[in-house]
């Protein structure tokens, strides 16, 4: 669009603000938001010129509707001119760009990792000369690029990079929630409108002039484009020109452009259509983005009609305005569009994703060659982090499949990805489409249908039967080719997941037999799936060599699909080795959530939370758990929602938040037990055990613990059985069941638990120390527990073992001998925030002759808000009353109190007054 001549009219205030933006000493971002034709492009052009004169390097990008589904297509426009600087980055960041530019490399980076790499690149590129990144039509930018631009734009302060974005106000955009500063671009004033109109169309008939001003209503594009159109029709009478009133302005302008397009020759229209469908931009052309766009050549006729112009930098034809481009597409017939797409597919032979975009639109009838190319594009998009684009291409590939089996497999693959993205409605629609055609029993469709039944509804019984039957059918008929091998692998892995959630020996026995029987003609089961089988089912009986196998699988990380990374993470959890893989999970989780693979992201959040609990990062664990719960609820993911609640309940029990723990435990129990989801009911029993131990109710703790496994044995396929080893032993010791406690500790030793994982070694030696028949053995086993490699990575269990040993020492050798162990235990519990355990350890310390009362140092650990809430609670106010006074929800107040109690060394509200009084000499709750 012509920027109102070379002088902007009526934009003095915007120009002043943009000048301040360019001349600001520090980097910043700004979004120009306004209606179609309001002048955003002109302001961007003006700012780019100003920045160039001020010594900035200007890099342009333009969002194109045709590329809005290509992952990171917009980001490529900004990054391409900066490629020479990539060699100056560290290897990790160079690797990130290798993946994003589709040149291979490891697993796609997370949005955060990519954003940090982009910030690093911008910092390097602007070290010699400041940068202005100018983005027009930001509403069409692909989702991944917007996420990166938003992340970087919020962190430009202190650098020499500025980001200016123009977006349309009438189209929803991810920039709407990017939290970047905005400058609204509104209509021109009446005086400015008249000045602009008179400058470009002097001598206009007064009546026509009045119609233009009335119709344009201050929109600059309308003021420029309506007069020629109206003049050409004036011979029909002025009244005829009033017929556009009441029609939205963009549609009126499309009619203006449509009139000019209709007057072109067929060849000129075809050339414009090819350019429009391949994303030829409007205004000054940006740097080359992903692939090479079509170059319009025979467009002189369109230029003469005022539809395109020559870009002064590249010399290429570009559209004068985005509305011209969209009008060209809307006016073309379906056959004309398909012909143009076919031509463009030939142009992009070497770009699998861009070629697939055009092939998908050009093909009408089933074509296996095209379907295969679309499937390859889906695989490419998955590797680069574009799960949603992959789902779309697989769906289209299914539509173009010539054979029923291939259609079913590809639809199943699309539904599989939709399920992992927690897009259950779309996944259900894909599954139903197969059922309507009578193909609902195909193996690929069974994968998707059973996946939905399990994760959306928690249905383990029917989904297990359905998947097992599909595997049996494939086993009987044989597996032919890589595609069917992939379907079989997905069926096997899904059956393993269902069996894990069922959590009972009978299900696992049948699953192990079925998987073990898979050989010719079905083909061998991948080693990775066998690892899942052994670690997810029963690490006590099958986990002896699993750690080495897990390390071998993770060594192939660059080749792994995101869901395999998550599954291997689950194996690492069962083997208590999550810590070494958590950094990769954390790098991956943001990408999975942001690019649509929500279910994978939620699994990874569970794993991250579990490792945070294990290593004692309990505040972070709670935040991770709440994030996972929020995602599950937002996506109607019932199974993962209750999974998150189970882990949050466990954390609350560890911290002494017993009311919250039992509330969550009850919710999990009531949902999971009727459905037969043993995995979750076992966690609920573990929550009950820990909660009872926390308040010293050892009988209740024992009853909960034996609900998981009987003393002296480890229930087959009960994943919580080895994890609650110490809980059962401690509860048995405190309830006078010494023989049962000893038998259980010896059973752990004899079952080889120390060989399975460091945590199980720690628990086994701790249990042997607690049940030792003499003090010498107790000391030896305690020392052995302390010496387990990586024991410090499980601080809660280690502190419990020290507490139990300190108590034994106090009774057997006197208080002096016990103080060191008791002190270390008390300090660990306080550091963790395990309130009731800290109280118990301090009581034992006092019994050993060492004072352990909280003092002012404990109060100093409280934030101002925590001090205020604690003071109000000590004065007798309820959580609701405190919330009303401090403008907080009762639940937020409760969460603050959970954090306050362990810091003050107490477990109840009743102790608040004394604790605050001891620390400060006052219980005045006022700040």
How do the strands and helices of this protein lay out in sequence?
Blueprint: H1 12-23, E1 28-34, H2 40-53, E2 57-62, H3 73-79, H4 91-100, H5 111-125, E3 131-136, H6 143-153, E4 161-168, E5 182-184, H7 190-200, H8 206-216, H9 220-232, H10 249-262, H11 266-277, H12 300-304, E6 308-310, E7 317-319, H13 322-331, H14 334-347, H15 352-362, H16 368-383, H17 387-399, H18 404-420, H19 424-436, H20 443-457, H21 461-477, H22 481-502, H23 505-516, H24 527-537, H25 539-542, H26 546-554, H27 562-574, H28 582-594, H29 598-615, H30 618-634, H31 638-655, H32 658-675, H33 678-694, H34 698-706, H35 720-723, H36 725-734, H37 738-750, H38 753-756, H39 758-770, H40 775-786, H41 795-813, H42 815-832, H43 835-847, H44 856-860, H45 864-874, H46 879-886, H47 890-904, H48 912-920
Parallel strand pairs: 1-4, 1-5, 2-3, 3-4
Antiparallel strand pairs: 6-7
Structure characterization notes:
The chain is mainly alpha-helical and 927 residues long. 64% of the residues lie in helices and 4% in strands. It contains 48 helices and seven strands. Strands 2-3-4-1-5 form a five-stranded parallel β-sheet, sandwiched between helices. Helix 16 packs antiparallel against helix 17, helix 24 (527-537) runs parallel beside helix 27 (562-574) and helix 32 (658-675) packs antiparallel against helix 33 (678-694). It is globular and about 110 Å long.
């Amino acid at each position: 669009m012509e920027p109102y001549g070379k002088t902007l009219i009526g934009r003095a205030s915007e120009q002043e603000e943009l000048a301040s933006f360019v001349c600001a000493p520090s980097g910043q971002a700004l979004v120009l938001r306004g209606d179609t034709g309001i002048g955003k492009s002109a302001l961007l052009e003006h700012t780019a010129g100003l920045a160039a004169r001020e010594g900035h390097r200007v890099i342009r990008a333009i969002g194109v509707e045709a590329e809005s589904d290509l992952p990171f297509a917009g980001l490529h426009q900004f990054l391409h001119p900066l490629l020479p600087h990539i060699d100056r980055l560290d290897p990790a960041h160079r690797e990130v760009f290798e993946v994003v530019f589709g040149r291979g490399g490891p697993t796609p980076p997370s949005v955060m990792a990519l954003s940090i790499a982009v910030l690093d690149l911008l910092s390097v590129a602007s070290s010699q000369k400041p940068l202005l990144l100018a983005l027009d039509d930001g509403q069409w930018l692909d989702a991944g690029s917007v996420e990166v631009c938003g992340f970087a734009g919020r962190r430009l302060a202190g650098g020499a990079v500025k980001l200016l974005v123009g977006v349309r106000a009438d189209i929803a955009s991810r920039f709407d929630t990017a939290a970047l500063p905005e400058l609204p671009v509104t209509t021109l004033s009446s005086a400015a409108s008249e000045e602009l109109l008179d400058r470009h169309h002097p001598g206009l008939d007064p009546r026509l002039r009045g119609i233009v001003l009335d119709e344009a209503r201050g929109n600059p594009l309308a003021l420029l484009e309506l007069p020629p159109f109206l003049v050409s029709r004036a011979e029909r009478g002025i009244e005829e020109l009033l017929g556009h009133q009441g029609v939205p302005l963009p549609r009126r302008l499309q009619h203006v452009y449509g009139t000019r397009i209709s007057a072109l020759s067929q060849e000129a229209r075809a050339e414009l259509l090819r350019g429009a469908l391949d994303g030829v931009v409007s205004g000054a052309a940006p740097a080359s983005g992903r692939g090479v766009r079509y170059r319009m050549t025979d467009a002189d006729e369109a230029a003469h009609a005022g539809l395109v112009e020559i870009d002064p930098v590249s010399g290429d034809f570009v559209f004068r305005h985005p509305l011209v481009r969209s009008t060209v597409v809307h006016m073309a017939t379906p056959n004309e569009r398909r012909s143009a797409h076919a031509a463009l597919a030939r142009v992009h032979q070497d770009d699998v994703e861009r070629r697939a975009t055009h092939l998908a639109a050009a093909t009408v009838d089933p074509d296996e060659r095209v379907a295969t190319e679309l499937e390859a594009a889906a695989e490419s998009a998955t590797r680069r982090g574009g799960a949603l684009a992959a789902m779309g291409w697989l769906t289209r590939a299914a539509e173009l499949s010539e054979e029923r089996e291939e259609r079913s497999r590809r639809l199943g693959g699309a539904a599989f990805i939709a399920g992992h993205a927690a897009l259950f409605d779309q996944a259900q629609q894909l599954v139903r489409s197969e059922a309507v055609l009578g193909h609902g029993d195909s193996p690929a469709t069974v994968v998707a249908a059973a996946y939905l039944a399990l994760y959306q509804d928690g249905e383990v019984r029917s989904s297990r039967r359905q998947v097992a039957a599909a595997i049996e059918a494939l086993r009987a008929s044989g597996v032919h080719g890589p595609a069917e091998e992939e379907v079989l692998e997905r069926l096997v892995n899904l059956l393993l997941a269902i069996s894990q959630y069922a959590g009972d020996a009978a299900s696992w026995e049948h699953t192990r037999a079925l998987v073990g029987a898979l050989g010719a003609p079905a083909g061998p089961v991948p080693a990775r799936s066998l690892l899942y089988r052994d670690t997810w089912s029963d690490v006590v009986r099958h986990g002896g060599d699993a750690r080495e196998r897990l390390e071998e699988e993770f060594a192939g990380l660059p080749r792994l699909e995101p869901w395999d990374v998550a599954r291997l993470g689950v194996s690492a959890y069962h083997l208590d080795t999550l810590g070494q893989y958590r950094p990769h999970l954390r790098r991956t989780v943001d990408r999975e959530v942001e690019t649509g693979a929500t279910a994978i992201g939620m699994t990874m959040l569970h794993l991250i939370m579990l490792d945070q609990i294990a290593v004692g990062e309990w505040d972070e664990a709670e935040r991770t758990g709440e994030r996972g719960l929020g995602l599950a609820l937002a996506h109607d993911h019932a199974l993962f929602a209750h999974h998150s609640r189970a882990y949050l309940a466990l954390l609350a029990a560890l911290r002494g938040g017993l009311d919250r723990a039992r509330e969550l435990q009850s919710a999990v129990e009531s949902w999971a037990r009727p459905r037969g989801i043993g995995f979750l009911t076992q966690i609920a029993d573990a929550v009950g055990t820990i909660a009872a131990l926390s308040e010293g109710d050892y009988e209740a703790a024992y009853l909960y613990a034996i609900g998981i496994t009987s003393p002296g044995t480890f229930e087959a396929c009960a994943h919580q059985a080895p994890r609650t080893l110490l809980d059962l032993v401690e509860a048995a010791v405190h309830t006078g069941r010494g023989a049962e406690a000893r038998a259980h500790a010896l059973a752990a030793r004899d079952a080889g638990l120390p060989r399975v994982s460091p945590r199980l070694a720690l628990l086994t030696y701790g249990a042997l120390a607690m049940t030792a028949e003499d003090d010498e053995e107790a000391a030896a086993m305690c020392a052995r527990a302390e010496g387990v490699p990586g024991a410090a990575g499980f601080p809660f269990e280690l502190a419990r073992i020290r507490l139990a040993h300190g108590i034994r020492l106090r009774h057997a050798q006197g208080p002096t001998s016990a103080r060191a162990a008791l002190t270390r235990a008390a300090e660990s519990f306080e550091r963790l925030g395990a309130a009731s355990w800290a109280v118990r350890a301090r009581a034992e310390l006092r019994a050993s002759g060492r004072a352990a009362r909280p003092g002012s140092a404990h109060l100093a650990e409280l934030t101002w808000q925590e001090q205020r809430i604690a003071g109000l609670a000590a004065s007798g106010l309820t959580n609701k009353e405190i919330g009303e006074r401090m403008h907080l929800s009762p639940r937020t107040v409760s969460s603050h109190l959970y954090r306050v109690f362990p810091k003050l060394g107490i477990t109840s509200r009743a102790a608040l007054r004394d604790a605050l009084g001891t620390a400060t000499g006052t219980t005045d709750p006022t700040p």
